[in-house]
Amino acid sequence: MKLIITLTTLVFLLPGCWAQQNKSKQVTAMDTTKKTTNPYYSRDNKDKVAIKDEEWKKVLSPEVYYIAREKGTERPWTSKFENFKEAGTYYCAVCGNALFKSDTKFESGCGWPSFYEPISKGSIIYLPDNTHGMQRTEVQCGKCKSHLGHVFEDGPPPTGLRYCINGVVLDFEKAKEAEKKYDAKKG
Length: 187
Hints:
Shape: globular
CATH topology: Metal Binding Protein, Guanine Nucleotide Exchange Factor, Chain A
Number of domains: 1
C-alpha cells in the first residue's frame, strides 16, 4: 500500500518538478533588445541568411537567441503581441523576413500570438518535431531558419490552421508606416 501511495505521489509531482526545472528556460517577451546592431536584419533583402550560431549569439539578445536558435519557448500570455490589434505586418525579429499580415491573426486562447496563414508559401519552412513525446510541425523562418513556433490543424477557416508563434521572435510594422515608406520610394 505504501509503495502505491509513493508511486502515485511521484506521478503527480514529477510533471510539476519538470515544469519548475524548465521554467528558467522559458522567457518573457519583454526583454528582446538586441545586444548590438544586427547587420543581417533587412526587410528589403530577400536573400537567404546562413549564419553560424556563434555569429547570431553576438547580434541577438539572449531571449531572441534562445527561442530562435535553440528552439525555446516564451511563457504563455507574456508576448506583447498576444492581444495586439494594430493593422500591419509581422516580420521575423532575427532577419526581417515578412511572415504574417495582421488580418490573419486571431484570438486562439493558447497564450501565444496565433495566425491562420503565412504571408507567402516561402516565408515559412515546415519540419517534423517529435520532441517532448509529441508529434508536431515546427515552423521556421523561410529566410534565416530561425525557430518561430508550431502549426496545428485546429485553426479557423479558411485554412483550418493555427500558427502558434513566439512573440519574442516577431517584429511589427504598422500598415500606415509601411505605406509611407512605399510612397517615399515611388516619389
